[in-house]
Amino acid sequence: MNRYQLIESLVPILEDTLVICNIGIPSQELFSICDRDNHFYMLGSMGLCSSIGLGLSLTTKKSVIALEGDGSVLMNLGSLATIANRSPENFVLIIMDNGSYGSTGDQATYTSESTSLAMIARGAGCDNVIECSGIDTKELLGDVLQQRVPSVIVSKIDPGSQPLPVIPLHPIILRERFRSSIKS
Ligand SMILES: [Mg+2]
Question: Which residues surround the ion ligand 1 when the cut-off is CB under 5 Å?
Fold first, then answer.
């Protein structure tokens, strides 16, 4: 299973959540699979998907999902400590760990060698850290959303990306419709 297939499998249970999606091809894949107002496609701020998701979750009772990548989390490891120490019950960090920088040509990241993001998250103090295969991710996400357990899910998938066009939404339109779905 690659990232496109993982996102495709998760889309049905993202409908009632607020989704922050990592910059680049992950956002293009989510947009192409299913575009909804509750999706925030990052157009900048590389590395900050988990931080934006955490910040949002502290301001709303709605479930917030950060659809992160391994390369992005490796750029911003300090975010895991903030997530652990604030630990809002409505926040789930999903790290789609394909061991590569998918948006820049699939260069290998250190998670394809010795680095375990699940172990780093546990060391940061996150209580419920689950490492799983891509295929098991949907069921696990459904469980933690239902139980409202703050969680980090490291979903191990294969590298590879779909060739897709850029998202044809103006940033202000994207911001306003996402704001509306936060308030709705
Ligand atoms: Mg990656």
Answer: 69-71, 98, 100, 102
Where are the extended beta strands (E) located within the chain?
18-21, 39-41, 64-69, 91-97, 100-101, 107-108, 128-133, 151-156
Phi, psi angles (nearest 5°) of residue 66? -100, 115
Domains of the chain: 3-183 (3.40.50.970)
Tell me which DSSP letter residue 62 carries: S
Distance between CA atoms of 176 and 39, rounded to whole angstroms? 11
Give which of 124, 137, 141 is closest to 79, Cα–Cα: 124
Given a contact cutoff of 8 angstroms between Cβ atoms, the answer to whether 178 and 40 are in contact is yes
Predicted local confidence at residue 163, as pLDDT: 84
Q: 68: CA distance to ligand 1 center in Å?
A: 8
pLDDT of residue 132 exceeding 90: yes
* Residue 128 reports pLDDT greater than 90: yes
- Residue 71 Cα to ligand 1 middle (Å): 5
Query: What 8-state DSSP symbol labels residue 88?
Result: -
